[in-house]
Write a structure and sequence with these properties.
alpha+beta, Taq DNA Polymerase, Chain T, domain 4, Alpha-Beta Plaits, 4-stranded antiparallel sheet, 3-stranded antiparallel sheet, 22 helices, globular
């Protein structure tokens, strides 16, 4: 059932060739009632609708998000509604109309024409896309009818893919994940503002009262590095080239100033320690400082915009630093009074996903234990650490280092899994798009300007191959994670549980303290339910570390 909403106006509904208009000042209340009584799979265009649902706390679990499904079908980032419609109807994209666009020789459309959502050439009218669909209940019904048509065309395309039932399942879970993203964007992540201010002050100094005061604090921060120099001098610490030159003058001949390289010298060189400490303080001051706090934190919640797909392999992403919060700032993420967090982290998810999507029986057997790498190491006759590096190297395309010798053993012991990765790599090298097990297209670009440089062409192709083999697994892992997250969202509702953070393979659930034990069991059980729904191989075992904590920094 397709739906289009406009608060204060009404809602439009459509199914097949039928559409209805309902005039009501509270369309979300009507939709909630319909969802409770009939529980259809709702079809909507995109975030405009999910945001309304999230703000109104409408409990919908089954959906079809047209923009999310389009990204699944065609790869890349989200496309605007007009482009999606044009692509589904084989209309030329170079003739897409835009708001305010009118050629000198164009005749103005009469009001009767403007009452239709499509133009004579088949494109959607930009004024409808820009909110004109919500001017009346009848327009909402027409907009819902177009959404229904678009969803039918998408379903036809998914049915043409290999394993269409899996593709359809992915489309539905991606749509439910968009609902979860809208809810996390609206509700936010609980934080302790007082702790945030203390940590920012400790790293970046007091809150500036003026531009001059800000310059003074910045100079004081820089001075902690300059005072370690002999002789003392001032350089631009924010310019990597200047820092490299500074280190060379102090006797450190380094190829670059990356943190992992400097970290090796930290304990023995006071200058290096001061420089690394400065970098952390500078990052907090400039990225997670007082301005960040003022812009993104209100009512005890940190809010950023969440998306169910990063446009590449399909991982969930967020703005406002939610995906990159430094570990030193994690103490600010604190459950509200009377609540706790259920923190759960999937264990060894990538090799377990590889076992699931490849169907490699020996690797499936290795997933039965809590630690997958130990049985792999035993079969290869190497240490656990070497086995881990080899398995990860196979998925990331690493062929050098101490684990390189074990790669040949992997190919012999787990031939089906390794062949799947190699096939993806070869497709990537040829600039051929690959598809995850759930049907997501991952686009492979090509080097359009080799300029006759054979070495560069080979290097670029090899990089595409490494990306392809990793995207195949990362994309499938992202699909499994989202099925798990939306299962927790649905099952946790009766416990008052709220998913507040999805970080790669980690889930943070905010729940009343007196329901913590129930919620922890529910999160664990949801892994098996998600695996049953998602995994191509039912015998693959997925595991997670589940903890009950008050602050995110307490997680081990």
């Amino acid at each position: 059932m397709a739906v289009a909403l406009a608060p204060g106006i009404g809602l439009g509904l459509a199914r097949g060739n039928d559409s209805w208009a309902i005039a009501t000042p509270e369309p979300l209340a009507v939709l909630a009632e319909l969802s409770t009584g009939h529980a259809p799979r709702w079809v909507w265009w995109g975030r405009e609708t999910t945001s309304l649902l999230a703000h109104a706390f409408v409990p919908i679990d089954r959906g079809w998000d047209i923009l999310a499904v389009q990204s699944l079908l065609f790869g890349g980032g989200r496309r605007p509604v007009g482009e999606v419609w044009a692509t589904l109807h084989d209309l030329p994209l170079d003739t897409l109309p835009r708001m305010g666009q009118m050629g000198l020789l164009d005749a103005p459309a009469d009001e009767g024409d403007r009452g239709e959502p499509t133009m004579p050439d088949g494109h959607l009218r930009p004024e409808w896309i820009d909110g004109g669909f919500g001017q009346s209940p009848d327009r909402l019904a027409a907009w819902a009818a177009l959404a229904s048509e678009a969803a039918e065309l998408q379903e036809q395309l998914l049915n043409q893919r290999p394993f269409p039932s899996r593709c359809l399942s992915t489309a539905r879970s991606e749509s439910a994940a968009e609902l979860l993203c809208a809810e996390m964007s609206s509700s936010g992540l609980p934080v302790d503002e007082a702790t945030a201010i203390d940590l920012i002050a400790e790293a970046a100094g007091p809150k500036p009262t003026s531009l001059a005061h800000e310059d003074e604090i910045r100079a004081s921060r820089d001075e902690r590095v300059f005072e370690k120099l002999e002789p003392r001098r001032e350089v631009n610490l924010r310019n990597p080239a200047d820092v490299k030159t500074l280190l060379e003058r102090q006797g450190f001949d380094l190829p670059d100033t990356r943190a992992w390289r400097l970290e090796k010298l930290r304990e023995t060189e006071p200058l290096i320690d001061a420089l690394l400490t400065w970098r952390k303080s500078e990052r907090i001051a400039t990225t997670y400082g007082y301005t960040w706090l003022d812009e993104h934190v209100s009512d005890g919640r940190l809010r950023g915009a969440w998306s169910s797909s990063d446009g590449a392999a399909g991982r969930m992403t967020a703005s406002a630093g939610l995906h990159n919060l430094p570990s030193v700032m994690r103490p600010i993420v604190c459950a509200e009074d009377g609540h706790v967090f259920i923190r759960s982290d999937l264990g060894q998810i990538e090799p377990r996903v590889l076992a699931a999507v490849s169907g490699d029986q020996p690797l499936i057997e290795a997933t039965q234990g809590d630690d997958l790498y130990s049985p792999v190491a035993q079969r290869l006759g190497v240490t656990r650490e070497i086995a881990k590096l080899a398995v990860l190297g196979a998925m990331y395309g690493a062929t050098t280092g101490e684990s390189a010798g074990a790669l040949a053993g992997l190919t012999k012991t787990y031939p089906v899994a390794m062949a799947l990765l190699e096939e993806a790599a070869e497709s990537g090298k040829r600039s051929e798009d690959i598809f995850t097990s759930g049907g997501r297209r991952v686009r492979m670009g090509s080097d359009t300007k080799p300029n006759g440089n054979l070495d560069r062409a080979v290097s670029v192709a090899a990089a595409r191959g490494r990306y392809a083999r990793n995207a195949l697994i990362q994309g499938a892992a992202a699909e499994f994670f989202k099925v798990w997250a939306i299962t927790v969202r649905r099952r946790g509702r009766v416990l008052g549980a709220e998913v507040v953070l999805c970080l790669h393979d980690e889930l943070l659930v905010h729940v009343p303290a007196d329901r913590a034990d129930e919620a922890a069991r529910m999160v664990t059980e949801a892994i098996d339910e998600a695996a049953h729904y998602w995994s191509p191989q039912p015998d693959v075992r997925f595991v997670a570390d589940v903890q009950i904590i008050r602050r995110w920094s307490e997680a081990k």
